[in-house]
Structure formats: C-alpha cells, structure tokens
Amino acid sequence: MRIVVLASGRGSNLEALIDAQRDARLPISIAAVLSDKADARALEVARAAGIAAIHVDPRAFGSRREFDDALFAAIAGARPELIVLAGFMRIIDPAAFAPWLGRIINIHPSLLPRYPGLHTHRRALEAGDHLHGASVHFVTAELDGGPVLGQTRLEIRPDDTPQSLAERLLPQEHRLLVACVGLLASGRIRWRTTGIFLDGRPLANPLQLDEHGEWIDDAG
C-alpha cells in the first residue's frame, strides 16, 4: 500500500512507520512526507530514509483553502492509497479532503470522543480520569470526530503530569498507529458509508490494543 504521511513536528510516529516498513512488519511503501513547517524534524526523518520530503508553506497562499488545495495536489502527485496524519497540526478544509474520505486517518492522543483538539493530557488530568490513551480514526469534517477504528489505553498514575503522561503514552501511540495501518494495508479494515468493517463484518466498537501491541479483540 502506497502511503503519504503528513506531519508538523518531530515525526516519531513517522519513524515508527518507517521502522515497521523496513523490518517488513508492514506491507507499505511510504511515497512522501509533507509538512507545513520547513523545520519540522519529520522532513529530516524522511530525507534520512530516502523518502520524498515536501514542504508546503501556508504563508505562500492567500487563504487556508488555497493552501489545502495545493497540499492535496502535492499529495495526489504521490499517488497514495492511504493518507496518514501523524501530528499534523492544521485543520484541513473538508472540501479539500472530500475525495479522500475513507482513505485518510489521524492519530489523536486521547480516548475519543473524549478530548478532541489540543492539550489532551492536561485535560485528562484536570478531569480526574483514571484512564487515558490514544485513538486512530478516519478523518471527517468534524474535528477529531470521525469513526474510530482502534485505541490503546493507559492507566493514569497519581503523580502523573501532562509531560510524564505524554512520554508514557508515546510508545503505545507508535504501536497503535503501526497496527491500524497494518489492518488497512492488508485490506482487513474498510470504512463504508454504513460504518467500519473488519473482515467484512461491522465493527461495533473500536478495536483495543494492549500494552504489548496485541489486539484484545479479534484483529489478528
């Protein structure tokens, strides 16, 4: 499966995908990495791996929609079958990605539908939650509101801070993204207008990945 990754920051989830591709744990080919930040470490990670690294500068366009159109024109040029948002910190105009519905996913650091948007670790602590986690969902017009295909959970400790919670969750995020991309690349997970299907059967609830990277539900 040809993949394009969008990232704005350090690219640690991108590194997890590259490692899984290199180790033949994922049947994917990362065709390009695109970023809205010229200094994003994700672009350096891509270049080091021999992957096309493309910066699309929002300041070069007169409107958000013009930027989004240029971004998706560059994406289309890479001919991906799947777009992965891995720390891409921009809201995309729904009209720009409408042709890609069902072929674009995002990883978000919360147990959606709890805490869409920013500062998820702080918000979980402030709410007194006992569990936190990450979700991979299909991208729709609603911010972090598309159908969730997989999640990983983490117990919150009494002494956790937003930083410690983020650091402990990150390795599980990596495993979750790799596992979800694996299901998509193998054709086991598909999103139709009537919902998410696993092996042709409707998926009633998001799949759960344990701390060892194994699906708790029957996802292989």
TrEMBL record:
Pfam families: Formyl_trans_N (PF00551). Gene3D superfamilies: Formyl transferase, N-terminal domain. (6R)-10-formyltetrahydrofolate binds at R64, M89, R90, I91, I92, N106. One of its GO terms (biological process) is 'de novo' IMP biosynthetic process. One of its GO terms (cellular component) is cytosol. CDD domains: FMT_core_GART. InterPro entries: Formyl_transf_N, Formyl_transf_N_sf, GART, GART_AS. The keyword Transferase applies. N(1)-(5-phospho-beta-D-ribosyl)glycinamide binds at G11, S12, N13. The keyword Transferase applies. Keywords: Purine biosynthesis, Transferase. Pathway: Purine metabolism; IMP biosynthesis via de novo pathway; N(2)-formyl-N(1)-(5-phospho-D-ribosyl)glycinamide from N(1)-(5-phospho-D-ribosyl)glycinamide (10-formyl THF route): step 1/1. The record marks D144 as: Raises pKa of active site His. It is an enzyme of class 2 (transferase). Belongs to the GART family. This is Phosphoribosylglycinamide formyltransferase. It comes from Dokdonella immobilis. The lineage of its organism: Bacteria, Pseudomonadati, Pseudomonadota, Gammaproteobacteria, Lysobacterales.
